[in-house]
Write a structure and sequence with these properties.
The complex is a heterodimer of chains A (111) and B (157). Helix content of chain A is 36%, strand content 25%. Chain A is α/β, with parallel strands linked by helices and 111 residues long. Chain A has a single domain, classed as Transcription Regulator spoIIAA. The longest helix of chain B has 22 residues. Chain B is globular. The C terminus of chain B is likely disordered.
Amino acid sequence: MQLKSAMNGTTLVIRVAEDRIDAAGAIQFKERMRDLIQLASQRVILDLGQVHFLDSSGLGAVVAVMKLLAPDRKLELAGLTPTVAKVFRLTRMDSVFTIHPALAEGLRNAG
Amino acid sequence: MRADDLADTAPAEARFRLTADALSVCDGLRQAFSAEPLLSLSAEDRGTAEIVLAEVLNNVVEHAYAAGGGPILLALSLGEGLLQCRVEDEGAPMPGGALPAGRPGDPAALPEGGFGWHLIRLLCQGLRYERAGGRNLLSFSLPAERSRGRAGDCPRS
């Protein structure tokens, strides 16, 4: 599971450099995220622009990361591709994440 | 199976044989999506099919074959604007002989599971489960509009 992280000002940006987060990679995703979010930041944005597919296991892992960040930080999402957006919408989990159309908007707007 | 007998009346059925582990399911899905009938579906219907088939197959791996691996058959055919899907396995039967209701908790409570059957039930039509001859047989249909362009083409900007 390739995750690339970088600080942009006080925002930690983590880009998923994979085309899917599914049952085969969900646990690894969660473990890698757990390490990366150790870095202090005001905000955390997960850039999903490259991910074309996310299943229920992947969704569960993204939710788990949101919980790891609580209570001081939240997980913001950016760049949801159509099928990924559909999974968030149908499960109504789009209501609990701040979702930016793309990373650039995410960096401009505080979540 | 005497497929020839059915050729005149039923649309051709594409069959994919998978083994029950997460990586094989992922590979099997990749294969299925690079072949007909999935290849020529519209981008939206391909997305819907990918969500449902991934959830169904992973459920087989994680639950029916929880005690050990085995074969999974995925059969797909296209007809009358619908993609007919059939998934068969030789694993444990559904608890209580029925499909789970699939009700995830309140989103605000940040549930980490229970999404799978919820997604399947929202996206499928005619979902049917049967246990026969030591096999689980799941059948359902999905929306299937044919794409005008070639599947996999990227939009030009």
